[in-house]
């Protein structure tokens, strides 16, 4: 019984494969507590993949009226995942004031201005250098932008690495992580634990796949209590992926709630 705070449908995210009906039916089958739809909004996306990476927000709110009706007694929250670039912060802050989103995820899918999904050459650089620069950009993002609720998948950069030990660790760039975590705490935002990242490590055969204990300990030490579970699902087979296991793991560090948002206000449900 969890709320999954990070999901995409084919209606507004070009890389997703599930319809809203498939999403809602799967949530009800699992007896989930709730679900947030957080469609991709990537301003000035640098890769031409044949489809726009932003969507018509007015149409989104109009069409999702039917989604809410179909969901019935399943809480369905209308959100968005903003793709960070430094010059977009003011635009995003203003844009989010204009619409009644329940939840806003702020994520960075770029390294040196390119998405590692397409730009695998970035992994030819020293791993610690790459990860440090990525976390520095996340810290910039958390500090410079304001109108968001959740920092998405801080470990996105390691997903496509072919390094035999691709995990991202606090010890690789402690100063950069401190900047990021302090900004989250100071602004009372939420750190997402993206279970798709865990799953991708396991697909590589990595046993040490759960988030680095030092990252979680340091976040808690700095006063961070807001954690959200997001499966980052693009189809209906991965909703609440690994949630019970990851929730039990997080509870060992003192975290007690899975954070979710309604009308941009944080709510909490028990992790265990």
Characteristics of this structure?
272 residues; alpha/beta; TIM Barrel; two-stranded antiparallel sheet; 8 helices; 33% helix; 17% strand
3D architecture notes:
The protein is α/β, with parallel strands linked by helices and 272 residues long. It has a single domain, classed as TIM Barrel (Alpha-Beta Barrel). The protein is 33% helix and 17% strand. The protein has eight helices and nine strands. Helix 4 runs parallel beside helix 5. It is globular.
Chain-wise SSE layout:
Blueprint: E1 3-4, H1 20-29, E2 34-41, H2 57-71, E3 76-83, H3 89-96, E4 103-107, H4 127-144, E5 150-151, H5 174-186, E6 190-194, H6 195-203, H7 213-221, E7 227-230, H8 243-251, E8 257-262, E9 265-270
Parallel strand pairs: 1-2, 2-3, 3-4, 4-5, 5-6, 6-7
Antiparallel strand pairs: 8-9
Helix pairs in contact: 4-5
């Amino acid at each position: 019984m969890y709320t999954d705070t990070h999901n995409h449908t084919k209606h507004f995210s070009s890389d997703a494969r599930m319809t809203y009906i498939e999403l809602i039916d799967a949530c009800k089958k699992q007896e989930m507590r709730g679900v947030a739809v957080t469609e991709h909004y990537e301003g000035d996306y640098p890769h031409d993949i044949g489809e726009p990476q932003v969507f018509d927000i007015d149409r989104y709110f109009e069409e999702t009226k039917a989604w809410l009706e179909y969901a019935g007694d399943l809480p369905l929250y209308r959100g968005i995942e903003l793709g960070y670039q430094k010059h977009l912060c003011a635009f995003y802050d203003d844009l989010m004031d204009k619409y009644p989103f329940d939840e806003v995820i702020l994520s960075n899918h770029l390294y040196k201005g390119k998405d590692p999904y397409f730009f695998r050459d970035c992994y030819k650089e020293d791993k610690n250098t790459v990860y440090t620069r990525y976390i520095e950009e996340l810290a910039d993002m958390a500090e410079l932008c304001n109108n968001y609720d959740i920092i998405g998948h801080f470990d996105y950069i390691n997903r496509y690495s072919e390094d035999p030990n691709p995990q991202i660790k606090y010890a690789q760039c402690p100063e950069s992580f401190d900047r990021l975590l302090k900004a989250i705490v100071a602004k009372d935002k939420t750190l997402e634990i993206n279970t798709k990242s865990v799953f991708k490590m396991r697909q590589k055969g990595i046993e040490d796949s759960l988030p680095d204990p030092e990252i979680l300990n340091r976040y808690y030490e700095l006063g961070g209590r807001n954690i959200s579970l997001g499966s980052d699902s693009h189809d209906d087979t991965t909703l609440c992926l690994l949630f019970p296991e990851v929730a039990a793991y997080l509870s060992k560090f003192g975290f007690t709630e899975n954070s979710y948002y309604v009308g941009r206000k944080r709510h909490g449900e028990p992790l265990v």
